[in-house]
Amino acid sequence: MPDFDVVVIGAGAAGLSVAAISAGLGLKVALIERGRMGGDCLNYGCVPSKALLAAAHAAAAARDAARFGIRLPPPEIDWAGVRAHVKGAIARIAPNDSAARFRGMGVEVIEASAHFVAPDAIEAGGRTLTFRRVVIAAGSSAIIPDLPGLDGVPWLTNETLFDLEEPPGHLLILGGGPIGLEMAQAHARLGCLVTVIEAGPRIASREDPELAEGLRASLVRDGVEFREGVKLVRVEQLEPDSLAAQAGVVAVLEDGSRIAGTHLLLAVGRAPRLAGLDLTAGGIESTPRGIVTGADLRSVSNKRVWAVGDIADPRGIGPRAFTHVASQHAGILVRSMLFRLPFTKVSYAALPRVTYGDPELAQIGLTEAEAREAGHTDLALLRWPVAENDRAVAEGRTEGLVKLVVGKGGRLLGAGLLAPHAGEMAGMFGLMIGRKLPLSALAGMVLPYPTLSEAAKRAASEFYTPKLLSPFTKRLVGLLKRLP
């Protein structure tokens, strides 16, 4: 008889959810974690990055207060205080993810590395554990590029960035994706020099160009410098007698230019944590993108195995490295693994993603380019500028745009938002796309005034305006006015 009904490898967002639900349903569960409980999101990602951004936005608000008639001295950045805020946010949330809490649920928490020794057995902490089902939720880590000179200079990833005891003098960021852009704005607003190096033609390459350009403009105003469309070919240790004596690393670009900085942050993407699991011994098929699963997240080669979160690579769908995807996966896993419900499948049609800059850039569903690539040709593009929103005008935050991608019959395919707190509006569009609600549901929604959400409603209403003001409608109203 197996030792456990369910063994979960990884105590991040997905693993914790699966372990809690499985134990709550009366199953015998083991949870294996070699690092910190809570995984990347709590300790190195979502929580500390948003806490740092909150401090940075507070500094920016103080500098900008004069436009409201509030005169303040320039903010003084207490780096130790900023770090205390970041660590305090982690500490406040940590008990929810703690080993003690899960042991209280009846989960056996094993703080060790794990690897497969057979298709139905794992070794962890010097013990061999047999199982009926295993859930691999080991997550992902920052990609370390094969870059000449990297082994001779200090560098940072999201796992070490928040440990800096002193602020970077000049932070060089390799990568213009969400992590790179968020940390660029945070550090620039906290008084650091920041340069972002992006090999692709533009930053935020997955996002709609109209929206990405607005975010870029905001970061430029904050003092962030960009080098786009140029590759970093090597890095060097700064010579002690250099004029930039405070710098510690030099980035050498393919055009021959050299940029000296004090710190180098690697933010070029993430890779699944496959090393050390010995998936071959478990009979588990994988690719460099993760563990190959069906749309139900079950391994295609070992029916005892499921994968969730960043490490899952569903066939025909691909991986997604978001904490909210890990939570979505956990829900799918409960239905497919525990309740054996058929036709339980992953779908990213309504998946939101947010770059938490200021303003925030949110995308739900397809961008215009993605919709065209998917074969949608009869598209309507609806736009409403944030500058036309009364709440935005009242608060002096008028930068941004709502852009809706609408297919045949008024079906909403995607929504792109560049606005303050755009992520808070994402759920509205996720519900519409996920439930296939007609655009009229949003256009006819009664929203409190004044709110930024009204910009979304006004964009949706643009779909119906041409019909409302058509010659036929005008003639009809002309006839109806004769009625008593």
Automatic annotation (TrEMBL):
**Gene3D superfamilies the record matches:** 3.30.390.30, FAD/NAD(P)-binding domain
Explain how, and how many, cofactor molecules are bound.
Binds 1 FAD per subunit.
Could you tell me the superkingdom of the organism this chain comes from?
A: Bacteria
Report the source organism: Belnapia rosea
Q: Name one Pfam family in it.
A: Pyr_redox_2
Alphabetical keyword list: Disulfide bond, FAD, Flavoprotein, Membrane, NAD, NADP, Nucleotide-binding, Oxidoreductase, Pyruvate, Redox-active center, Transmembrane, Transmembrane helix
Q: What is this protein called?
A: Pyruvate/2-oxoglutarate dehydrogenase complex, dihydrolipoamide dehydrogenase (E3) component
Annotated ranges, domain Pyridine nucleotide-disulphide oxidoreductase dimerisation: 352-459
Every FAD/NAD(P)-binding domain range: 4-329
Q: Which GO molecular function entries does the Swiss-Prot or TrEMBL record give?
A: flavin adenine dinucleotide binding; NAD(P)H dehydrogenase (quinone) activity; oxidoreductase activity, acting on a sulfur group of donors, NAD(P) as acceptor
Cite the InterPro entries for this sequence.
FAD/NAD-bd_sf (IPR036188), FAD/NAD-binding_dom (IPR023753), FAD/NAD-linked_Rdtase_dimer_sf (IPR016156), Pyr_nuc-diS_OxRdtase (IPR001100), Pyr_nucl-diS_OxRdtase_dimer (IPR004099), Pyr_OxRdtase_I_AS (IPR012999)
Q: Which residues bind NAD(+)?
A: 175-182, 198, 269
List membrane-spanning regions.
6-27
Cofactor(s) listed in the protein's UniProt record:
FAD
Report the sequence similarity comment from the record.
Answer: Belongs to the class-I pyridine nucleotide-disulfide oxidoreductase family.
